[in-house]
Design goal:
287 residues; alpha/beta; 6-stranded parallel β-sheet; two-stranded parallel ribbon; 10 helices; 12 strands; globular
């Protein structure tokens, strides 16, 4: 059985990966304070102790607006932390699968982004994640990076759970309609990782895109959440300028997934089908 060490094991994606991959792989979840990725000595010792076959690197500072006000911390976690993980993986000879983001793009495309499109991040979060990508690819001997978008799950704080909570509390919500992308159910991303990990060959270095299929705005996504949750909250569209934020968001960040489907034989379901499963799980567990 493949032994996999997971960074960010307490996070939204980390918890989902533990649920999906458990039983298929031997999962070693790690997180602060015992596995501090910003301390190269500490993380190297953790990796040497467990000697995993692979590392799934999820740990990151993902609070996009907070990254703007705490830039040093964002760089320490997203850039230097990734450098330390890649260096440690090289030292013990294990493969690395790292998670990145659609925020590496500026959102000015009019067709879905492919992996070789120029990265022009507009936010501190996007910049730090892109710098982390470059370091991973330069330092690790074997590395796969998966960029994803609009991630949500049954765990932690995310757009789906926020909309459900506010939809129960309020009669009307205003949601941005001029930012377009694709929601990604963490359960589907975790299932893709299960499929991909055993296929990562020694010396392989590549970037892939993964999200669910289809395209929508945050407004469309919110309407679907409220509808599937059986709530009567009125969702009204607004423009981005009406809901100002510290960090710039890419107005268009749809990801082209042809490469990951071709290379690994993955089939990806539509975002509405994935959302239905997540909401059913939330309802079943009274969340």
């Amino acid at each position: 059985m493949m032994k996999v060490l997971l960074t960010g094991g307490k996070g939204m994606l980390g918890r989902t990966i533990r649920r999906i991959l458990g039983g298929r792989f031997e999962i070693i979840p790690t997180d602060l304070p015992k596995a501090d990725i910003t301390d190269p000595g500490v993380f190297s010792a953790v990796l040497a102790k467990h000697s995993p076959d692979a590392v799934i690197h999820c740990a990151a500072m993902t609070a996009v607006d907070k990254c703007e006000t705490e830039r040093e911390l964002a760089y320490r976690l997203n850039e230097r932390g990734s450098a330390n993980v890649a260096t440690a993986c090289k030292a013990v000879g294990c493969r690395l699968l790292a998670i990145s983001t659609d925020y590496v793009f500026d959102g000015k495309n009019y067709v879905p982004y492919i992996e070789t499109d120029p990265a022009r991040p507009k936010s501190v979060y996007g910049c730090t994640k892109f710098e982390g990508e470059k370091i991973v690819m330069s330092r690790a001997d074997t590395a796969v990076i998966i960029r994803t978008s609009w991630l949500y799950s049954e765990y932690g704080s995310n757009f789906v759970k926020t909309m459900r909570r506010l939809g129960k509390e309020r009669g009307m919500l205003k949601v941005i309609f001029d930012q377009v992308g694709t929601p990604t159910y963490a359960g589907d991303l975790a299932a893709a990782i299960v499929h991909i990990l055993p296929q990562i060959r020694p010396g392989m270095k590549s970037i892939y895109h993964f999200s669910n299929e289809g395209v929508c705005s945050w407004y469309d996504f919110a309407r679907a959440i409220i509808e599937m949750s059986g709530l009567s909250c009125d969702i009204r569209p607004i423009e981005s300028w009406e809901y100002p934020s510290k960090a710039a968001r890419p107005p268009y960040s749809v990801l082209n997934k042809a490469k990951i489907k071709k290379d690994f034989g993955i089939r990806i379901r539509h975002w509405r089908d994935a959302l239905r499963e997540c909401i059913d799980n939330l309802e079943e567990n009274n969340l």
